[in-house]
Amino acid sequence: MRTFIMQVKNNFMRLIVRNPRFFLFDVAIPAGFYVLFTKVMNQGMPASFNQTYLISMAIYATILSSIITVANNIFADREQQYMRFIDVSPISRGSYYTSMGTVLFLLTLIEVGIVEAVAKFYIGVSFPLTTWLAILVLASLGSIPIMILGVALAFCGSSDLISMMTYMLVFPLAILSGLWWPMQMMPTWAQHIGKLLPTYQTSVIVNDVVNQKSWSLTATGGEVAWLVIALVILISVQKIKRVQQA
Q1: Where does it primarily localize (predicted)?
Q2: 65 contacts 104 by C-beta, under 8 angstroms
Q3: Long-range pairs of 216-219 with CB within 8 A, sequence gap ≥ 24
Q4: Residues 149-152: contacts with CB within 8 Å, 24+ apart?
């Protein structure tokens, strides 16, 4: 346990504390978008817009970290021979991935918490403490399937290819699931696709909780389905990689 805690601490320092890009991409961009759309471009928006867009930007922040940050850091560890160091150290690969998952989940909690802090102290959104905690926890838990997809992307080729694939995944997820603008503004075919995405399922669950509606079993089932799909993709990609290296 002590070794695992040290590994978590080490990964937290090198991936978050010593990584200024984290603040730019995973925190500043979603928080900046939230301020821009609620303070500058909110003409004609209903009074509830500040609350609903808070949820959208919190989920968008988790997409950035779960795909771009996860894929790039896992790939960098593989390319810089960090995995060979793991293999000759007392730390197993299972412990490495578990500690990375722990740190990356902490990262989602931090970025969602910062977006919430901006909403409360700068925009003036008012929620009970339990609602703030629900947004924090549910948005972070909803990122787990996407995080697993981010790990799978790290095994898909060169740095350039991975970077291209991450952005090809991030922006469609954000746009089609209605995080940037209302889904009703999109064509019908795009709405059908968007409602199948894991980020849309997370948005439905969080909005239902915030608005004190009954828990959506359909959205919960969608999250579970995406968790299974992501795990299957990860296992398949790793098997293909092992065959290629054999």
Answers
A1: membrane
A2: yes
A3: none
A4: 149/66, 149/67, 149/230, 149/233, 149/234, 150/66, 150/67, 150/68, 150/69, 150/70, 150/71, 150/74, 151/70, 151/71, 151/74, 151/97, 151/234, 152/230, 152/233, 152/234, 152/237, 152/238
Q: What is the DSSP letter of 19?
A: -
205 neighbors 138 (Cβ within 8 angstroms): yes
| Best CA proximity match to 26, nearest among 74, 62, 52, 55 | 62
**CA gap 166, 136 in Å, rounded:** 24
pLDDT digits (tens, 9 = 90+) for 16-54: 777 777 767 788 889 998 998 888 776 667 768 889 999
Instruction: Look up tokens 């787990």; give the residue.
Output: 144
Q: How many other CB atoms are there within 10 angstroms of residue 26's CB atom?
A: 25
Pairwise CA distance, residues 26 & 3, whole Å: 28
pLDDT digits (tens, 9 = 90+) for 59-73: 999 999 899 888 888
Residue the block writes with tokens 């909403």: 119
Q: Are the beta carbons of 233 and 149 closer than 8 angstroms?
A: yes
Structure tokens at 88: 């000759």
What's the pTM value of the predicted model, to 2 decimals?
0.91
C-beta atoms surrounding 245 within 10 Å: 6
Mention every residue, 6+ apart, whose C-beta is less than 8 A from residue 96. Answer: 7, 83, 86
For the CA atoms of the chain, what is the radius of gyration? 19
Which backbone phi and psi does 35 adopt, to 5 degrees?
-65, -40
